[in-house]
């Protein structure tokens, strides 16, 4: 659900404003209303850019982490100054910059080694001695097709090496004598031998190894220093932002600040500020106020909040969709996964991850995966599939969850979620505008349920009383009258009828298309089960003629690779398609608006 917020204004003497902000920050419950964009303030923009730079450095350093050798932030060292944090940042950036420099140096030196390797390893001082004794030594390269055999006599050419399509050669001539140069590329040779270049390359490699060691050590043992510095920068930004959000009144002697407080924290706030002698007043929420949104759900639904935030937070006037779609999402995931064995593996992996991790965020993700894995395990057992093997009870003709019934069940579940979404949309309109504006939406839900009951009950229940059917049709007709003649209260009846006809068209076309979208639940689950069965058959049939000592390891290899790939695809499909059904079909029918701004209280970041 969305936590109720209260609006406050605070009137503070300008000389006490900083002290007041320190008090407010220590409380950590007030979301400060913005009167100007922080990005328009130069000093705050600098902090924003500094945090971007810091986060980029943290991501780069984190890529060198060895998960088994990470040292957590020592409690005794968490109190660090911003100057120390800046020094840690500079050190990390130097290591990263040095890594890039060494990579460039290595690439350049490797090119030089490659070039010199075409000539072989020789001492350049020998060439210099020949030159000192009156010989002219020139180095050339050309293509094999361009090199002529008579060059050896014509130019005193000596072939040194043939590399692929190129010829590397030298010419030897006496100083003071006339000589011609061949039509080839003249090479300017360095004053170092191949051995010297290779030694320099090895030296750079050693420096790279030391640099990587330094980065890994920093990532494993000192990354927390950058994280602490990031929190300090964020707290500094928040405080500076709070300073500029207050409006000056009474010749700039009074600061007026607006803030939002969760209803549950109102008493604590008022008691603290009254004790400090600060003036505050609770204000009425006005239309157009940008009210921050804080979600608060039960132990089950709160783990699905990241899914809500992935699309958008609801705005303050809406109904939190998290607890409304969470059971459906769990069911959809299980139907798409379609295998109890895969569900069990996911449950075990998530449990191990939750036990091993110390991060609250990772633990929450693992808990969500535990729910999803558990749901997939239960639903997989219900449909009778374990690692692609159909269980005996699922092979019976009387088994209720066979393929035909699963497809029907998928459509029924989809219809239920769509009707539920339309009911939520009616509740939202009632909350935002009042009961009379929501009656037509409630009426449409009633029409669909009553008409559906009138059509389905005779099929499900033989000999049902005609009176029940008549009552259902009567309720449906009454709902239609409300939907047609009271969909726009206060407007011309003809406008209401026209709107009713338009709504009927949209309802009929949209309901059919949206409901059919849920067939994907059946199709994805069926595909997963079939692929699992195919890999089982492949492992058994392809190894049938092999000796047992070859057959069983080979079977195990095929099963591990096959089921591993299938499970990976199943996880992706089982996340993507329920997300699609939630964000498209369900959100469309409950008329989700979104655009909520997250509640971000002014407090010291920890």
UniProtKB/TrEMBL annotation:
GO MF annotation terms: ATPase binding; proton-transporting ATPase activity, rotational mechanism
Gene Ontology annotations for the cellular component aspect, listed alphabetically: proton-transporting V-type ATPase, V0 domain; vacuolar proton-transporting V-type ATPase complex
InterPro entries hit by this protein: V-ATPase_116kDa_su
Main localization of the protein described in the UniProt heading: membrane
Membrane topology of the entry: Multi-pass membrane protein
Keyword Ion transport attributed: yes
Cellular localization per UniProt: Membrane
GO biological process: vacuolar acidification
Domain of life (superkingdom): Bacteria
Pfam families in UniProt: V_ATPase_I
PANTHER family membership: V-TYPE PROTON ATPASE SUBUNIT A, VACUOLAR PROTON ATPASES
UniProt-recorded name of the protein: V-type ATP synthase subunit I
